[in-house]
SnoaL-like domain-containing protein
Amino acid sequence: MDISSLHSPLVRRAIEALNDERLDDFMALFAHDAIVVDGTTYHGTKAIRAWMQRENIGVHMRIHVVREKDTEGMIVEVQAASQGGYSGPGTFSFTAHNGLLTRLEIS
């Protein structure tokens, strides 16, 4: 699935920023008290920034969207590929409030 066809502009921008390794653009999408859960819980933008740098940019993570799993496009099935990190299938579940991401759960 082409990222540009995702229903949620917020999810689209997050995945594009992750794939393009644009840390500041990725972080601008998150509320200050947001949470990321990937087996470990990261609370707040400082912790999420460190996670993004280490677990995504640090291993050149690229996300290919396989399909949307809900009508709003906030849950996407993905195929991840990296150089030294996780590579394989997964699901990204996004939650937003007032135009910002408040939670990203990766399973």
User: Anything to note?
Assistant: The domain at 3-106 is CATH 3.10.450.50 (Nuclear Transport Factor 2; Chain: A,). The chain is about 25% helix and 40% strand. The longest helix spans residues 9-19.
